Recover the amino acids of this structure.
C-alpha cells in the first residue's frame, strides 16, 4: 500500500460557492476527507500535478465562460501530469444537454452535482462520489499541524492541583500532540478531566486520556480527547482543522 493510498486523496473545490466553503468543507473534513478551496485555475492545475490522483470539483458558474471551462477540463485530461486527476462539476445549471456533455462527453468520474438540490442533498452526492473514488484512504481522522500557530494551546489542572500548560503541535478530533512547559509525570492511560483547548479565538472544555510520549520527539505527549464531546465542540475543532489545512496549502510553493 502506497502513502497516498493510506492518507487518501486531496480534494479541491475550484471557485466553491459560499455555502460549500462555509459549511460543506467542514462536513467533509469531519467525515475524513481532506478538502481545500481555491479560486485560481492555474494554481489548481499545478496542485493537481503536485498531488497526482487528486480530486477536484469545479464550479462552472463562475470564473470564466462555460466553453472555457470545457477547454480547461480537456487540458487537464490530456496533460500527462494531471490526467490521473478525477474531476466533477458543481453548478446551478440544470440544462440536460450541458449535463450530458460533462457526464458522457468528458466522462467525469465525480459527476455533475446540481446545487439547486440544496446543501444536504448536494453534500450527500459529493460524499457518495468521494466514497466511490476511495478518497478517504485508510486513516480515520484528518490531522492538522499548528506548531506555528501561537494561539493554539491547552491547559489543565490535576486533582492534586498541579497546573499544566502546553503548546498544541497538531490536532485531530481524536487527539492532540502537545509540548508542555514543564515535565509531565502523569502515567499512560491517566484520565484528565477539565482540559481547556484554545484554538485561536475558540475555547473548548473536554476530558482526555494520556496516550503516551511521541517516540520521535522528546517532551511531546499525545492526549486522546473524549470521543463523546459535544457536537458543537467537534465542529469547532474541524473548522479549525479546515483553516489550518487551507493555510498550509496556500503557503505551498509549487
Amino acid at each position: 500500500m502506497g502513502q497516498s493510498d493510506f492518507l487518501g486523496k486531496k480534494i479541491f473545490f475550484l471557485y466553491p460557492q459560499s455555502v460549500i466553503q462555509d459549511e460543506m468543507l467542514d462536513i467533509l473534513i469531519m467525515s475524513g476527507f481532506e478538502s481545500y478551496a481555491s479560486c485560481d485555475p492555474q494554481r489548481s492545475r499545478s496542485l493537481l500535478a503536485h498531488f497526482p490522483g487528486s480530486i477536484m470539483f469545479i464550479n462552472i458558474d463562475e470564473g470564466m465562460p462555460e466553453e472555457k471551462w470545457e477547454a480547461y477540463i480537456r487540458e487537464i485530461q490530456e496533460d500527462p501530469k494531471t490526467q490521473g486527476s478525477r474531476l466533477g462539476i458543481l453548478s446551478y445549471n440544470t440544462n440536460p444537454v450541458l449535463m450530458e456533455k460533462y457526464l458522457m462527453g468528458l466522462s467525469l468520474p465525480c459527476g455533475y452535482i446540481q446545487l439547486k438540490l440544496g446543501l444536504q442533498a448536494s453534500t450527500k452526492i459529493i460524499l457518495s462520489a468521494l466514497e466511490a473514488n476511495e478518497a478517504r484512504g485508510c486513516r480515520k481522522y484528518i490531522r492538522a499541524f499548528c506548531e506555528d500557530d501561537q494561539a493554539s494551546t491547552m491547559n489543565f489542572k490535576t486533582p492534586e492541583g498541579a497546573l499544566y500548560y502546553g503548546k498544541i503541535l497538531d490536532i485531530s478530533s481524536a487527539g492532540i500532540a502537545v509540548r508542555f512547559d514543564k515535565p509531565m509525570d502523569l502515567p499512560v492511560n491517566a484520565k484528565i478531566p477539565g482540559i481547556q483547548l484554545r484554538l485561536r479565538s475558540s475555547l473548548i472544555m473536554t476530558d482526555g486520556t494520556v496516550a503516551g510520549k511521541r517516540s520521535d520527539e522528546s517532551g511531546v505527549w499525545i492526549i486522546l480527547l473524549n470521543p463523546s464531546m459535544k457536537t458543537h465542540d467537534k465542529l469547532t475543532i474541524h473548522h479549525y482543522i479546515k483553516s489550518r489545512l487551507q493555510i498550509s496549502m496556500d503557503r505551498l510553493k509549487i
